[in-house]
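Methods: holo model generation. Sequences were used as deposited, without trimming of termini or removal of tags, and paired with ligand SMILES retrieved from the corresponding compound records. Each pair was processed once, and we did not select among multiple samples. The sequence and thiamine diphosphate SMILES for this entry were:
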Amino acid sequence: MYEGMVTARRYEERLQEEYLEGKQPAFDISAGPIPGELHLAAGHEASGAGVCIHLRDGDTVTAPHRPHHVAIAKGVDLKRMTAEIFGRETGLCKGKGGHMHLFDPDVNFACSGIIAQGCPPAVGAAMAAKKRNTDEVAVAFLGEGAIDQGGFLESLNLASVHDLPVVFVVEDNDWAISMPKERVTDVTDGSQRANGFGLPGVRVDFDDALAVYDAAEEAVGRARDGNGPTLIEVQVHRRMGHFMGDAEGYRPENDVERASRLDSIPRLAEDLRKRGVDDDGLEEIRTRAHERVEEAIEWAKEQPEPKPEAALEDAFAGPPEGAAEPPAAAETDGGERSDGPRITPGERSGSDGGEE
Amino acid sequence: MAQQADAAGRELTMSRAMVEAIAHEMREDEEVFVMGEDVADYGGIFGSTDGLLAEFGRDRVMDVPISETSFVGAGVGAAQAGMRPIVELMFVDFFGVCMDQIYNNMAKNTYMSGGSVNVPMVLMTAVGGSYNDAAQHSQTLYGTFAHLPGMKVVVPSTAYDAKGLMHNAVRDDDPVVYMFHKRLMGLGWMPSPAGPKTDVPEEPYSIPFGEADVKREGEDVTVVTLGLHVHRALEAADELSRTDGIDTEVVDLRTLKPLDTETVVDSVRKTGRLVVVDEDYRSYGVTGEIVARVAEGALSDLEAVERVAIPDVPIPYARPLEEAVNPGVEDIADAIRATR
Ligand SMILES: Cc1ncc(C[n+]2csc(CCOP(=O)(O)OP(=O)(O)O)c2C)c(N)n1
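and the model returned the structure below.
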């Protein structure tokens, strides 16, 4: 768990550095090797690690727009995830998804950029597990800002009324972009949202990874044993701006300081020391994590960029294995000028999904 | 262009121009208020409400929970109660969360009530890509909103237009979707092309809906477009006049509903050639609609037609992929050449 957290933290530090390259001195969101928005999760690591440690590859996780720590904890392929964030051909999604839209079906991980959007699909994965009589579970991660969203509340109800094996994990970092929690809800303990729907709600304070571990062990166990859903809210801290480039003019200085003071990683290190892990042991873990991150970033940067014409592929399911080449997408891009430099319909390669 | 002659020699970014119009309307009418995510302290992620909190306070510039169904729907309710809400949907892509309120309430209540109820509400929202934010944050969706009966749809391309159209939008007694392109707003972190920053008079003025603007006059070919692509089309037109001697007319639609068919058809009668450029998906969208209108209105004058739009795929993330689908200056220039 400690290694997962340290890996996630290091990963985000390195991503931040890479992201800011080409964006200095004047910040231009579309410049540099990683364009678009980048939402880092530094300060959220305890929830991803403490929950996912109880999960197997076959269990499903849906994460929100701040996904990296959860992805790492769930065992998403770090190299291909990094390549995706750099927009490379060998990325998890061939460069089509980017950092907010990572899909790794090998470990049943997905995330998305629309607030609370992952809740219903997690319920659906749990439904599939129940119908098929497996003991797989699904976990939906979301922010405390997302728990006012209808899709979340409807999901609680559906999961509860059908006793589905799903765990909702709310990461409460007090902020939804510039909106502090107290301005958008009168209920400080988000786990109370469970009360109206007849499922258990648990709150873990103080960003305590071991307490998250315990709460998640129980919730995941309950789901696996067929006893229905749980809502866990975990206190985390947002150490950075909402996205890279956010000047945080709305945020009091002491709040930033507090987030850094209450960091879960030194706290867990302290807990481990008390349990007899020595400093060398911790250092070894850190070194290993840093090396793994560096390797992933180096690998990603060496990967080729996707070819422009690949933009037209993958809108529909690829052909079944061994099937003949699909016809050119006559309906979707028919009539596209064939002399333009952009995309020639005839060039559409027939290899949708063929690389796997 | 003619309208801009009376501007006061004071250049504003598009976001400043929008805010100026909103602030003026709020001063004039107590019933006007703004609500949305991060519209107060943050001033709108794209600067569309920047500075309003300081002048009008939290009662009239309201941050709301992330719950689009509820606050967009509340906008409809407040409008029906006679207020004039300006509701911001941060990115148009998030419409999916609250589409029922938008298209079954906001757009239809006037009609369903036999005209006994009206919805004087502005839904303003950021559109467009070109900065690699992928499929859930880069759409324009002009066609989706213009497709809904009962909805007025506005898409400014310059600060001058943005202000005049905003005044008109707030005063309009019908629901208006005001779609601003992120890359035109004049944000430090998302550089704009030259063009959207224009002279803007200090006094209020209203640009009526349904009046397209000829942003560049030309004899040889008509380009019809809107939003960011007005500027790309103007750049292509300048390039072609230099390199190919083609004299391109650029028509900026400015409003999709109501649509100024006359200006478009008149232009094609003059040039005989039509290129429609849209940052929205190709099928069932603005390009098809404009071609249909021209076919209805000036079929015998029409010698060539080209459409440039996003092929029917979601917006990809990686730079080469997004550039491949988002019409660039060269794509527009090629389409113009192809009409000859
Ligand atoms: C439906 C929807 N509305 C608004 C947004 C814009 N948005 C992105 S992140 C965010 C704040 C989310 O806050 P929270 O859920 O607390 O997560 P955090 O960012 O703090 O991790 C908002 C409003 C969005 N992506 N989707």
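The beta strands of chain A are 60-63, 103-104, 109-111, 138-143, 166-172, 175-176, 179-180, 201-204, 230-235.
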